[in-house]
């Protein structure tokens, strides 16, 4: 529609914000900017994407636009780890309206998911009152990306490390862990399992 009506180059501002803090928590913790920026820097459309959209009935004018697409919006964001508050912009996108519209869903998915985890981690870390808190969310995460970026977000929120070794490899989040239940079951008693683990 923007192309058809000659509006594609109209400069627009898109503000990402949230309306409320769950459970009267006072503030949330910003996270997700790294993944969003990585996505924006690599945003392009392959010939397979164009072919798929052609099959769905999109106009050749639009498909030609996508062939030469280069993301050119400016993006401002609160730094990761910063406390953020309701009804204040935490990400601002300025640029051609068609481009800003393209990224809306990815921005919401990324910032909402990771800020949620960073905020919950921060609450747990503060409740622990100086005791170390580790992140063990991978087994129950919603997919591979959820585990990887969730571990990073928990670290941003204050966790000391993660059981997700890929988060250490990819992002430098310290990989920590405990012994597996299966390890303990391999020994006649828990004490023997603990002693064997201590010398391993």
Short structural description:
By secondary structure, the protein is of the alpha+beta class. 45% of the residues lie in helices and 12% in strands.
Structure in words:
With 200 residues, the chain is an alpha+beta fold. It has a domain of 127 residues: Alpha-Beta Barrel (nicotinate phosphoribosyltransferase). The protein is built from 9 helices and 7 strands; from the N terminus they run E-E-H-H-H-E-E-E-H-H-E-H-E-H-H-H. The chain has a 3-stranded antiparallel sheet. Strands 2-4 form a two-stranded antiparallel sheet. Helix 6 links the parallel strand 6 and strand 7. The chain is elongated and about 75 Å long.
Break the fold down into its secondary structure elements and pairings.
Blueprint: E1 11-16, E2 28-29, H1 33-41, H2 47-55, H3 60-67, E3 74-77, E4 83-84, E5 91-96, H4 97-102, H5 104-127, E6 134-135, H6 144-156, E7 161-162, H7 165-171, H8 181-185, H9 190-198
Parallel strand pairs: 6-7
Antiparallel strand pairs: 1-5, 2-4, 3-5
Helix pairs in contact: 1-5, 2-3, 5-6
What is the CATH architecture annotation of the domain at 1-127?
Answer: Alpha-Beta Barrel
Assign a percent range to the helix content. 40-55%
Number of E-type strands: 7
CATH class of the domain at 1-127: Alpha Beta
